[in-house]
Design a protein that fits this description.
The chain is built from 17 helices and 9 strands. By secondary structure, it is an alpha/beta fold. The protein has 2 domains: 99 residues, no CATH class; 203 residues, Rossmann fold. A 9-stranded mixed beta sheet has the order 1-2-6-5-4-3-7-8-9, sandwiched between helices. It is elongated and about 65 Å long. The two termini are 40 Å apart.
Length: 340
């Protein structure tokens, strides 16, 4: 596949507006930055409601014309026209990206993961970067999340969930971090299944690792991120990655969570509030307090004994998970999640 199979004209316009891929190193000195997701959402609504209708129609318009047509302040219209001026450089950067085994797709494109778009709606990232067969993202999977530092019981549980997902012909979705994420993804890959890794940083570096390259080449693994392929780690990036994990999942399993702190807790609470997908939580005598508190917030308990008896995890979820009428009342009383 080539860049044009991933990106249509609308997608290329979005990429110019919502990513720094084509911007020069001096962009900050030029006081020029890509649109944030909230800014793009506002612009998208105005474009759809105008005579332009599609993002590609923004190309070639003057700032004055955009300001008038879209009822934009002059400085915002000028910013849009300046961002769109780098179309030539975008073609060069896209070629470089593909030569490095990476790709990019936008929310306007057909190959954008449909479940992610349908689940998160306006919160779905405007731009994704990835490595691997993008078609693997057409099917939602089972998300497996949890702490980096996990005991053997939790590790065994994560491996079992990975194996159960493969048995149900579902991909395992996780964040690729040390601990729970890698354990579940590795279990799925070793069982001959598929893994979807939603990364918070370092897509290009991760995709170059020998074992990762092998799974990507075998079309068993695809990696995606909403951040630049060379982005370094940040706490904000790790938190933002949670939306990708839950947005790519038809159900999610929390193996181990701290209480009111850390990415696992924050992501699970956000998913429950947003009702992105059914959230299952490992239950039992020795699970962390965070697991117990998530159950109080409306998650569904899944014990090791329950898991052992599951033959089809997707069917088990459909039969067991019923929306709770009191869920929002519980959230109204629950303390806010503190993020690291």
């Amino acid at each position: 596949m080539n860049a044009h199979e991933y990106l249509g004209d609308d997608g290329q316009a979005m990429l110019l507006l919502c990513s720094s891929l084509a911007l020069p190193p001096t962009a900050a000195e030029m006081d020029l930055s890509p649109l944030k997701l909230s800014e793009w959402n506002q612009l998208e609504r105005k474009v759809l409601a105008s005579s332009l209708k599609i993002p590609a129609a923004l190309q070639g318009r003057s700032a004055d014309e955009l300001a008038k047509t879209l009822a934009l302040p002059n400085d915002e219209a000028e910013r849009i026209t300046r961002l769109l001026e780098f179309a030539g450089q975008l073609s060069v950067e896209l070629q470089n990206l593909f030569e490095r085994g990476l790709w990019t797709v936008t929310r306007a494109d057909e190959l954008y993961p449909p479940h992610l778009r349908d689940t998160l709606k306006h919160q779905a990232p405007s731009v994704l970067f990835g490595a691997g067969d993008i078609r693997l993202l057409q099917r939602a999977g089972v998300a497996v999340v949890g702490s980096r530092n996990i005991d053997e019981a939790g590790a065994a549980f994560a491996r079992e969930v990975g194996a159960k997902a493969v048995a149900a012909k579902l991909p395992v979705v996780s964040g690729g971090a040390r601990g729970t994420d890698r354990i579940a993804m590795q279990a799925a890959l070793e069982a001959g299944g598929i893994a979807l890794g939603a990364l918070a940083d370092s897509l290009e570096r991760t995709a170059r690792q020998a074992d990762v390259r092998e799974f990507i080449s075998d079309e068993k693994l695809v990696l995606i991120t909403q951040y630049a392929p060379d982005a370094g780690f940040s706490v904000g990036g790790a938190m933002g990655r949670n939306k990708l994990i839950y947005g790519l999942a038809e159900s999610a399993v929390v193996v181990s969570s701290d209480h009111q702190t850390g990415g696992t807790w924050a992501g699970a609470v956000e998913a429950l509030k947003g009702k992105w997908c059914p959230v299952l939580v490992r239950d039992g005598d020795n699970v962390p307090r965070g697991n117990k508190e998530l159950l109080k917030l409306g998650a569904t308990a899944l014990s090791a004994d329950d898991l052992a008896g599951v033959s089809d995890i997707a069917e088990w979820v459909r039969q067991r998970v019923v929306p709770k009428a009191s869920e929002m009342d519980l959230f109204a009383q629950a303390p806010s999640a503190r993020r690291k």
